């Protein structure tokens, strides 16, 4: 069986494919890009996601998300991997000129992912470097601020326009309950201060219902990562 035949069979049977090849990559969709000929690592996953890596760096130079349709045209003298997303009309074309390595396998992975660290680490990192963690220059006012019967706000800041900013931090994907928790804090501080108060929910991810509720309530959200938090906290440790 030729490499192209093996590749087609692997894609058809939804196996993981690792292809090291000399190729050019063209993308058309929300924008356009062309990556000239070079050696690349191409990953095709069983969910339809396709990732193209250059020899250096950890970020992909091109990718298509899960749900993409992958097809292979041509033969071992030269073939093309075509990745399309019909709903968004996106197309990734990988023209393979030569293959250095090909591997495919059916993988099983149902393990639960656990990241070391807690909400306290995220909160400390946000207070220490809100610019990196939240993407905005904010001045810290307080942490674990008591709001009486409403609870405790994780962090309160002042923004560049003098508005108070309440930040509620969640270690895992934030649900709609976290949105209304944040809303309570914002409304309580508004009543007590008479000032304009913004609310930001900070978490690694958000449920669809949470995002809908945030938009409906006029609240904001920021995606934060434990990796960034560790980098911020490690700088603090090194400084002291």
TrEMBL record:
GO terms for molecular function: DNA binding; single-stranded DNA endodeoxyribonuclease activity. Residues 120-229 form the Endonuclease NucS C-terminal domain. Its main location: cytoplasm. The keyword Nuclease applies. CDD domains: NucS-like. It holds the Pfam family NucS_C. It is found in: Cytoplasm. The keyword Cytoplasm applies. Residues 15-109 form the Endonuclease NucS N-terminal PH-like domain. GO terms for cellular component: cytoplasm. Keywords: Cytoplasm, DNA-binding, Endonuclease, Hydrolase, Nuclease. It is an enzyme of class 3 (hydrolase). Its EC number is 3.1.-.-. NCBIfam families: PRK04247.1 (NF003270). HAMAP family: NucS. PANTHER family: ENDONUCLEASE NUCS (PTHR38814:SF1). Belongs to the NucS endonuclease family. Cleaves both 3' and 5' ssDNA extremities of branched DNA structures. This is Endonuclease NucS. It comes from Thermofilum pendens (strain DSM 2475 / Hrk 5).
């Amino acid at each position: 069986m030729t490499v192209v035949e093996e590749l087609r069979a692997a894609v058809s049977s939804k196996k993981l494919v690792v292809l090291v090849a000399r190729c050019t990559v063209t993308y058309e969709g929300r924008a356009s890009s062309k990556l000239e000929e070079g050696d690349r690592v191409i990953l095709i996953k069983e969910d339809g996601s396709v990732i193209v890596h250059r020899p250096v760096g950890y970020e992909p130079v091109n990718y298509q998300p899960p749900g993409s349709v992958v097809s292979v045209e041509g033969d071992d003298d030269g073939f093309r991997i075509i990745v399309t997303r019909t709903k968004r009309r996106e197309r990734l074309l990988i023209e393979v000129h030569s293959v250095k390595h090909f591997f495919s396998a059916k993988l099983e992975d149902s393990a639960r992912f656990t990241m070391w660290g807690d909400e306290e680490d995220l909160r400390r990192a946000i207070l220490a470097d809100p610019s990196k963690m939240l993407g905005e220059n904010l001045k810290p006012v307080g942490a674990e601020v008591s709001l009486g019967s409403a609870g405790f706000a994780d962090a309160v800041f002042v923004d560049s326009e003098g508005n108070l900013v309440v930040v509620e931090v969640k270690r895992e994907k934030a649900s709609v309950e976290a949105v209304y928790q944040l809303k309570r804090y914002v409304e309580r501080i508004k009543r007590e201060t008479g000032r304009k108060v913004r609310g930001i929910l900070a978490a690694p991810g958000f449920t669809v219902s949470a995002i809908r509720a945030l938009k409906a309530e006029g609240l904001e959200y920021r995606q934060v990562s434990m990796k960034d938090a560790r980098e911020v906290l490690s700088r603090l440790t090194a400084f002291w």
